[in-house]
Amino acid sequence: MPVAEGGVETQVEVEICSVPTPPELSESAIELTAKIADIIDRILWLRAYWATTLAPEVDRECEAWRARLQRLASKLEISTPPLTNLLSPVNIHLLAPLRDMTKPTIPQNLQQS
Predict the structure, then answer these.
(1) Distance in angstroms (rounded) separating the CA atoms of residues 80 and 23
(2) For labelling, which of 15, 22, 30, 113 has a CA lying 20 to 30 Å from the CA of 48?
(3) Beta bridge partners of 4
(4) pTM of the prediction?
């Protein structure tokens, strides 16, 4: 690239940094990413609804959706850029371990007393 310095042209070499291109995603990866985005939206809606009702059924449904999200996320590598973009620091907690949401049962010997 010629550069003029005081009327004299000099050659300056410009080194261009190569930016790594993201890997091409297959159709199935794009579909999984879309499903994950929908599930995240559903979980966030359920949490907002649960905050107003405190219904245990809503909490159980939210945990079921989180389990589905974790299964899909394990299929799609976490290092894939679209998943990293979907799971912002605000949503990354959705991949935390699940809570036990089973209903407590009363043993038979206590039920008869």
Answers:
(1) 8
(2) 30
(3) 9
(4) 0.59
Rounded Cα gap, residues 62 and 50, in angstroms: 9
On whether the CB atoms of residues 41 and 94 are closer than 8 A, the answer is: no
Q: What are phi and psi of 48, to 5 degrees?
A: -65, -40
One-letter identity of residue 17 = C
92 in the Ramachandran plot: left (φ > 0), alpha (ψ -120 to 50) or beta?
alpha
Q: Compute the average pLDDT of residues 43-56.
A: 92
Q: Which two tokens stand for residue 45?
A: 């809606």
How crowded is residue 75: how many other Cβ atoms within 10 Å of its Cβ? Answer: 11
Contacts for 89 with CB less than 8 Å, ≥ 6 apart:
none
If you search the block for the tokens 């985005």, which residue do you land on? 37
User: Can you read off the two tokens belonging to residue 39?
Assistant: 């599930």
Distance (Å, rounded) from C-alpha 94 to C-alpha 29? 19
Rounded CA separation 28/48 (Å)? 30
